[in-house]
Amino acid sequence: MSELPLYVVNLPGSTDRRASMEAQAAALGLSLTFFEAVNGRVRHPLFDHVNATKRQACKGRPFRPGEIGCWASHYLLWQRCVESGRPMIVLEDDVTLAPALLDVLGALPLLPEDVGYFRLHAADRPSMPWLRFGDCVLHRYWRSPQCTFGYYLAPAAAARFLRHADEWVVPVDDYMDLGWLHGVQCLGLKPGVMSSGTFDSTIRGDASQKPSVGALGWLTREAYRAWFGLRRSFHNLPARLGQGSAVRG
Can you give the pTM of this predicted structure? Predict the structure, then answer.
């Protein structure tokens, strides 16, 4: 795992973000590979995956350009992971890295092969300890931890993400948490080893720019939200019933 590639999703014009990541990596003795992010305002073939009708019904509004660019950027990295046959770390370019990231990277050889994905940041969402590798503890989340600040990804999990991503309806970070759909468990480190930085979002876009969804949009959005919640609850039920079980590892 010492040669595990660390990819940083970065728009070519975001030189300040790149400089920040390079400085943090140098301080930790890490080598980064910068991956050119897809600009959601420039037409890309992958945007054909967007199902505008379902998106409107599910969220009450269309994707913002930054959200589509974010989707395409991660989709391309999943493809690279599968093609390379090697695990990778994917990072956004505005995160703050903690020195404890080095401990996680050092413990990855102890990670069971059936764990193909986990987030590197911790979220204040319901979860339970799930697996220990070295001194690291993975939690299984019962609700989406949201965001794609950084995550570990192995080829098997990347292939599952790709297999079920023919239609883009929800944001990519929400999609990655739909374990009932693609079979990849929603796992994350607690405590985390990175956090959001101080830069404004360029890939997702400014959340304050969301248009009003209207009454009909609100109704369809809430119906989809309830449906997703029900599916998630049924998927998590067996694990939640066994919460008293010992942590793996």
Answer: 0.86
